[in-house]
Task: inverse folding
């Protein structure tokens, strides 16, 4: 028995794999959704934008189950989370993180908040991994707010 | 800001080892498994056991599955005495079979049911724990398999370590009417690391202990396997390819078992030199 055809099967599957990310909104749309009516200028660091109304938007990504989740965090001039938006999500499960009710939990959080799943951010059963990693990502962004704002 | 990759019980970064995650409630997945064994003491030997499976998340902690099991065997004079036999072959040879001829057959084996209950979530609890049970029934075999599944994630979930303790209680009817009762217990351990999005690479080991009787009555042998594994996943599908090589360090507990050992590896009606697992999964809940 020759193993070659069997071992080649996975490679063939990858080659024929469908491509294409699910994009829910652009960076500009996310910024406008977080700070409606504001104009934005580069913040001196890739993925950071200053809002004319004060505050910043950080475009970040975390790895979900298989691929990156792209999201935006808006932070007010006072250092609290204005809102978050999910820009791209490419997992089989866990799309519930896009629901406004889950994302709204982040509003008002700051660097002094725990920002930990099952402590001050409720989990969504079946989307645990995405919930945890987005929460971790927001915590890191908020923790870096002072340095991000100072650019 | 790179964080994690995670596998569910259905989708595993390992070939043989289960992880403690389960499917979300209300989601389905189709999975195909091919477990291949190749190479015995001499001659030609290839055996492929296939499972076609539908998995379903009954709750967020309980996953159930149904299997259709079929196999393909191709062997020729691979036994120690020059006759044809081996795992998946010997038990199907009746008196009309010329023992020095080739055996090649594709056949239906059995159907089975599987349930996995997640006790501790590997993402949110300090360690993941799941319990597994699988009854299997076919024309020639009846089997009850159970597992205790432990999982620990490291490095922001990029490194997954898992241990399975697996026991089986088997009853197999041979073509000559004889009945074999066995109860193997395996301890498998593996680690897999996310090297880039979609790709994990790791290794897995197996310590296999075979007993006669339903309740680990008399030890037969202990065999040891190790090898690499590669896993690819995206939202539409995933696959895993693993290879385990039998290490030349078998331990036997009686003369019958010792008589099917060559260069430290055991063959007979149980084992081959190399084992390969290929798994392909397609989730149905993609939005």
Result:
């Amino acid at each position: 028995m020759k193993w070659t055809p069997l071992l080649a099967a996975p490679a063939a599957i990858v080659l024929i794999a469908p491509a294409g990310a699910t994009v829910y909104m652009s960076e500009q749309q996310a910024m406008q959704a977080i700070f409606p009516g504001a104009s934005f200028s580069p913040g001196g660091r890739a993925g950071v934008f200053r809002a004319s109304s004060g505050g910043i938007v950080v475009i970040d990504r975390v790895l979900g189950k298989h691929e990156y989740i792209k999201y935006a965090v808006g932070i007010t001039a006072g250092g609290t989370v204005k809102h978050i938006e999910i820009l791209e999500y490419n997992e089989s499960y866990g799309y519930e993180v896009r629901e406004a009710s889950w994302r709204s939990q982040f509003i008002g959080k700051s660097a002094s908040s725990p920002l930990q799943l099952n402590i001050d951010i409720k989990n969504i059963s079946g989307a645990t991994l995405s919930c945890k990693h987005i929460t971790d990502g927001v915590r890191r962004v908020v923790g870096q707010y002072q340095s991000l704002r100072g650019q | 800001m790179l964080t994690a990759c995670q596998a569910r019980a259905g989708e595993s970064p390992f070939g043989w080892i289960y992880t403690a995650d389960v499917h979300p409630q209300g989601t389905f997945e189709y999975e195909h498994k091919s477990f291949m064994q190749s190479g015995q003491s001499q001659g030609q030997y290839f055996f492929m056991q296939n499972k076609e499976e539908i998995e379903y998340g009954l709750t967020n902690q309980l996953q159930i599955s149904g299997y259709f099991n079929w196999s393909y065997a191709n062997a020729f004079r691979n036994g120690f005495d020059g006759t044809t036999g081996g795992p998946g072959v010997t038990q199907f040879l009746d008196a009309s079979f010329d023992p020095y001829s080739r055996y090649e057959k594709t056949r239906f084996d059995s159907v089975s049911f599987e349930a996995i209950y997640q006790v501790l979530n590997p993402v949110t609890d300090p360690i993941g724990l799941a319990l597994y049970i699988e009854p299997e029934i076919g024309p020639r075999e009846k089997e009850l398999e159970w597992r205790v599944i432990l999982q620990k994630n490291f490095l922001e979930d990029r490194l997954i370590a898992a241990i399975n303790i697996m026991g089986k209680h088997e009853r197999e009817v041979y073509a000559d009417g004889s009945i074999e009762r066995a109860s193997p217990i395996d301890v498998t351990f593996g680690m897999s690391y996310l090297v880039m999005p979609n790709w994990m690479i790791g290794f897995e080991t197996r310590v296999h202990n075979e007993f006669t009787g339903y309740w680990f009555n008399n030890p037969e042998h202990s065999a040891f396997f190790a090898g690499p594994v590669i896993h690819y996943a995206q939202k539409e599908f995933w696959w895993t390819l693993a290879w385990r090589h039998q290490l030349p360090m078998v331990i036997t507990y009686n003369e019958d078992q010792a008589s099917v050992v060559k260069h430290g590896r055991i063959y007979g009606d149980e084992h081959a030199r190399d084992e390969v697992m290929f798994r392909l999964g397609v989730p149905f809940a993609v939005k």
Notes: The mean pLDDT of chain A is 86. Chain A touches chain B through 38 residues (CB under 8 Å). The radius of gyration of chain A is 18 Å.
